[in-house]
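Explain my protein.
***
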Amino acid sequence: MVGNRLLDDVAVAVAALDRDPPAAARAQALAHPRKGGGTVLGLGPSVRVAAEWAAWANGAAVRELDFHDTFLAADFAHPGDNIPPLLATAPSSAAAPGPTWSGRSSPPTRSRSP
């Protein structure tokens, strides 16, 4: 199910990349470059911007063609509102300790004592 939602979000975002609202959001994000920041759908992986602006641009691309539909399910929010920020911030937090994409925490580093 997660794979289907991810594929759906990326597909509608790619289809919307040339539309005015996602293009404007990308331009806004590009005005906030940040080394080690987030990635924006439709730009190369070397282009990094402040994570909150990457999340904004990704969300605008996903929701542009998702038509802001209602989501009547047991989930607490529409997947289109959750996945774009994750796509934006995952690369910038990949080196940080803590939960990974699998949901498991990184194993702690143990010092060896004699």
Observations:
- Residues 97-108 have pLDDT under 50 and may be disordered.
- The helical segments are 2-16, 20-30, 51-66, 79-93.
